[in-house]
Amino acid sequence: MELKVTTLEGKDAGSVELSDAIFGLEPRADIIQRCVQWQLNKRQAGTHKAQGRADVWRTGKKMYKQKGTGGARHGSARVPQFRGGGRAFGPVVRSHATDLPKKVRALALKHALSAKAKDGGLVVIDSAAVKEAKTKALVGHFSGLGLTNALIIDGVELNTGFATAARNIPNIDVLPIQGINVYDILRRQKLVLTKAAVDALEARFK
């Protein structure tokens, strides 16, 4: 698959040949969905907690005698039936993370990249670098390229000025190649790859 390469200023910078094994697959929604669910499960904090009967500070003495009161039988006052008692089967601090094989994760990334390439949401630029970190100038470049909602992936090292200028722009994310992931690709309309990012992806899946 051949794709045109542009500069940030919108000028033509040749073309690049993309591997069909990475960008030319027929996207499978089930594989992509499994990876997105794995990511969301992994990042869930799981710090919610309710007091159980063991956590309530209240006497454990039997409330009243077993028989002869005409009321129901009760023991501890910490039980959920009483106001101020512990909650039955409440949430506890735990990990929500699930398992997903590495091969499935790698395949999901390929399918997400292929989905962007198929629907025309993939843009390749020469490099993500600016001379001075000015957000206003970068917004002008992005509007010229039609980027209002995009994920920009650069090589191993981000250009400091570019990352600084882009961080104040809403709906624009900038990540190094190590941070590329399925969820962030799908949540933005456009995926912008630098030539360094394309080379790194092809080396990664070689």
CATH topology of the largest domain: Ribosomal Protein L4, Chain: A
Structural class: alpha/beta
- Radius of gyration from the alpha-carbon trace, in angstroms: 27 Å
**CATH superfamily annotation of the largest domain:** Ribosomal protein L4/L1
Mean pLDDT across all amino acids: 94
Which CATH-level-2 architecture of the largest domain?
Answer: 3-Layer(aba) Sandwich
Distance between the termini: 16 Å
Helical segment count: 7
Topology, please?
Blueprint: E1 2-6, E2 12-17, H1 20-23, H2 29-43, H3 102-118, E3 122-125, H4 135-145, E4 150-153, H5 160-166, E5 172-175, H6 182-187, E6 190-194, H7 195-204
Parallel strand pairs: 1-3, 3-6, 4-5, 4-6
Antiparallel strand pairs: 1-2
Helix pairs in contact: 2-3, 4-5
Organism: Bradyrhizobium macuxiense
Pfam families: Ribosomal_L4
Keywords: Ribonucleoprotein, Ribosomal protein, RNA-binding, rRNA-binding
Structural commentary:
This protein has helices at 20-23, 29-43, 102-118, 135-145, 160-166, 182-187, 195-204; strands spanning 2-6, 12-17, 122-125, 150-153, 172-175, 190-194. It is α/β, with parallel strands linked by helices. Helix 4 (135-145) crosses helix 5. The longest helix has 17 residues, at 102-118. The radius of gyration is 27 Å and the shape is elongated.
